[in-house]
Specification:
Shape of chain A: globular
Helix content of chain B: over 70%
Number of helices of chain A: 7
Largest interface: A-B, 25 and 28 residues
Function (chain B): Required for the export of heme to the periplasm for the biogenesis of c-type cytochromes.
Protein name (chain B): Heme exporter protein B
Largest sheet of chain A: none
Largest sheet of chain B: none
Number of domains of chain A: 1
Oligomer: heterodimer
Distance between the termini of chain A: 21 Å
Keywords (chain B): Cell inner membrane, Cell membrane, Cytochrome c-type biogenesis, Membrane, Transmembrane, Transmembrane helix, Transport
Distance between the termini of chain B: 30 Å
Organism (chain B): Bellilinea caldifistulae
Number of helices of chain B: 8
Membrane topology (chain B): Multi-pass membrane protein
Amino acid sequence: MLQKPKLLTVLDVAAIASFLAATGLVFFYAPLERVMGAVQKVFYFHVASGWVGMLSFAVAAVVGVIYLIRKDLKWDSVGVAAVEIGIAFTLINVVTGAIWARPIWNTWWTWDPRLTTATIMELVYFAYLMLRSGIEEPERRARFGAVYAIIGFLSVPLTFFSIRLFRTIHPVVIGSNDPGAMGAFDMTPRMTQVFLFSLLAFTIVYFDLLWHRIRLGKLAERVESLRLKLQA
Amino acid sequence: MSGLTPFISAMSAVIWKDLRAEWRSREVISAMLVFALLVILIFNFALDLQPNVRAGISSGVLWVTLAFAGTLGLNRSMAVEKDRGCLDGLLLAPVDRAAIYLGKAFANLLFMLLVALIVLPVYGILYNTNLLIPGLLVVILLGSEGYVAVGTLLSSMAVQARTRDILLPILLFPVAVPVVVSAVKATGGYLAGLGWEEIQPWFTLLVVYDVIFTSVAFMVFDSVVEE
């Protein structure tokens, strides 16, 4: 039996505590935005989950490069873990965005470049999972997964720069703002504090989940090899 | 630069092989062409391409047509290699594998450009617009290059998977979006007669993605075909 590492338990506690603290801060510490009201509070988790999604896909690409150099299957299991978690957080990002957009833009969804490119990014990683499911041989699956994670991540910068290249209505809260954006606001110091804390909390939650998912992959491999041993 | 000559001769051998096989069978080009014309005709019904509406969406229709036809060619070009074990033969040859990749990609690019070269005037005649603008032709060249660069890599992965034929579009379309979007925007700019300063950002983005996709695919192709 694989023993659960002590550090992982510590990380579990830290993740739960910081997530609860971030939720508390969002509801009770962050001030109400004057124009948008309570729905603006979605912003803290919306951006944090978007950040974690991007981070996760970046991790998958970097791990892909490492795998192609080292050819060690351990890096492949990190890659799958990162992609799966990235998909989940990008989905949270899109859904929270829709919840905010309903009252502010008066629609759940609009064909804005920012929204569209984020969704295409999500589809890249669905394609990643489909590619993997089409290949049985673990070594080849790992190689193709690594290549696709690298190629797929190349199109991610477009998502990031789309708010600057296209004329878009999605607000840019950090840095300069397009006057055409709708629902933009300036952060007060308290908002900035809550925002930074939720970024930190989501990052801790991310690394905790990543570690768990990697362990799950290892355990699944053990089960598989034990089953083969029993059959033999 | 002594290493360059065998590289180029290996590359041109692969291109020559593909062109000759295509010249004898004429399978891929004819399929791509008929398919491209069908797509344009279907768009005519689906979008009700009125003269006043058409100007804005011509670039989109054009690129969707080229992308669909391109997928057909890319799928075929690698499936042919895989079917009778030709790919193994190619890989056994004592040449740099990057040369094989570049050769395949270049042949695919030629096929796609040939289709574009026929589709453009036909589209122009059918819808009474002039598409043979020099700047637009450059955009077609650059857009096809980026699409084929990443498409050749992905199709060589797709043919090795269990779901082969259906996998390539799923892998390729989301990844190729930066190339297709910037090509559509630049094409639309030329069709609308916009100034260079309006087109230039998209043109630059297109060139940037061409360089990125080509060089990354060039580097990782080796790990896609290794056994």
